[in-house]
Design goal:
The protein is an alpha/beta fold. The protein has four helices and five strands. Strands 4-3-2-1-5 form a five-stranded parallel β-sheet, sandwiched between helices.
Length: 163
């Protein structure tokens, strides 16, 4: 049997354990016309990266950036309008539709969301009609060209690639 070497009270609900008031870096806001591109290539629900990127994208919109989100590879499934269980739009478990809801928030607040037609059709048999309303399907050649456009525009870029 091991002996405890430290005896301190357990944390209780509501206890503040971290200094959330300190911010190390300046709160940067976009200058007029500045763009941000978020490229997402990830399997939905295989980790938190997609939802974290969408939350970060929302923060970029609220900081004034003109935000474009490029979904390609398995990430096109994030934009499925047919998700739900046991019926479309029903949460199979709490948070099951968080990604869908965040995409809708982003579009409502001005972001543009793109989904690659190649990934939809060739990889998943996923139709353009199955996209959340407002998500724009794009040519697979635009994956590279959107990145080059972002570079040419001197846009902030966030790239996530997981498999």
């Amino acid at each position: 049997m091991s002996t405890k070497t430290v005896d301190i009270p357990k944390a209780q609900e509501g206890d503040i354990l971290y200094d959330t008031s300190e911010k190390v870096f300046p709160d940067i806001k976009a200058e007029p016309g500045q763009k941000a591109f978020v490229f997402i290539h990830t399997v939905p629900f295989e980790g938190s990266v997609a939802l974290v990127n969408l939350k970060t994208s929302t923060r970029l919109v609220r900081k004034g950036f003109d935000v474009s989100i490029v979904l390609y590879g398995p990430a096109v499934l994030l934009a499925s309008a047919t998700r739900g269980y046991p019926s479309v739009g029903a949460e199979g478990f709490p948070g099951n539709l968080a990604v869908n809801e965040q995409l809708k928030v982003l579009m409502k607040e001005g972001a543009t969301i793109y989904a690659c037609r190649f990934a939809m059709g060739a990889l998943y048999g996923f139709r353009e009609d199955d996209l959340i309303e407002g998500v724009k399907a794009f040519n697979p050649l635009d994956v590279l060209d959107s990145a080059l456009y972002a570079w040419k525009e001197k846009a902030f870029q966030l790239n996530t690639w997981t498999v």
